[in-house]
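User: My instructor asked us to take a sequence, write out its structure as tokens, and then describe one feature of it. I'm not sure where to start. Here is the sequence I was given:
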Amino acid sequence: MPQPLIAALNKLLGPQGVLTAAADLEPYVVDWRGVYRGATAAVVRPANTAEVAAVMKLCADTGTALVPQGGNTGMCGASVPNAHGREIVLSMARMNKIMEVDPLNNTLTAEAGCVLANIQQAAADAGRLFPLSLGAEGSCQIGGNLSTNAGGVNVLRYGNTRDLVIRIEVVLPDDCSCNGLGGLRKENTVYHRKHLLIGSEVTLGVITAATLKLFPRPAANATAWMAVRDPEAALQLLALMRRHCNDRITAFELISRHSLELVWKHVPGTRDPMAAPSPWYVLTELADAGDEQALRTDLERALEAALTEDLVVDAVIAENRTQAQALWHMRESIPEGARQEPVMVYRHDIAVAVGRIPEFIREAQAALEKRFAGVRLICFGHLGDGNLHYNAYLPDRLRSDAAARDAHDVTETVYDIVRQYGGSFSAEHGIGLSKVAELVRYKSPVELDLMRTVKRALDPQGLLNPGKVL
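Assistant: Let's start with the prediction itself. The structure tokens for your sequence are:
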């Protein structure tokens, strides 16, 4: 990378805004799983939207590619530069302010580098709830959540990230800044760029801030961990819970035992909450504005009905928030447990229609076991919206083996079945680097041409996150 460019970046951002030392660059060039590694000569860290626009103008003028990065907690390599080292990493970490909380309008405005947990806490301090919740919430940034349209565990009641956003501020690749922030909930005079930018993995423009929806903070919560025979029983249990508890169900997670065995093996302080093993479990949470004891009583009645109908083998209801958090900690630690294994885990963030989940799980497992001797499955996810993390590994394929990392045979076996079920091979993790080939394989030429047309219109030089998605 030319030294004049580095000098110009230093002049724009000052000493805090540009990193060039190898030790400082290291955290930005490798993803948290250690699967994707790239190189860069500089990481730029703008402090405000004007500086983002200035950096993007400089990159446009010099033909320099830019890789935006939030908390770098993604699963698909979208925030990692490529190996040739000619791309600059744009870190949003310094743009971490919560700009406004408006309890009366139920909105919160935050810069893109704000950590998700800090947004949750700011909402709680105002007596409100920001419901986006996922395992990486202590380190992921809201800009990254927006870039992939993250789902999380509360989608069942509150929707994906796109559903939680009112307006966004964005800088386009030609350095044009569009400030659309504010709590205006009805606006029908322009094309709504949020629907185009959210989920685009920062290939069309850099979101620098967003106005988010808040909700009344629930006064009561109730959490239950249930053992079930199979996914079919879990699906019937979901229907029963909806009859008894209606829209108070905020989360309903299906978890295979093998997923949890990796957690109990690698994550200190976790243990099986059940007296006897079960092949499948469900973790559910209810929330309400009323009395906690009344909510717990309704949950108990629903579980009694489930036991009577033989949908639940055993169940544990959390006695307090500490116990509930321990149950959720197990669920959220599954990716970390899998990461501690030396084998290559083939991760599949898939979605099919909710009613076909049990059938899909059976067919995909049978196909994998037929083709790959010794395959182990790590299946867990959001049963309520049809999104599963249907992961698999083979004991003889190590993460350190390049051939294992580059293999697509396990993934194609799963995705071919997903296509048969009319599903999606990317529900909430995005495309990034890892699924570019799959996008070409499974999407129609018309869809791809439309995406390329939009990309060319907004980023004609192809400098924003090149090689990702398309």
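For the description part of your assignment, you could build on this observation: The longest strand covers residues 387-398. Try explaining in your own words what that tells you about the chain.
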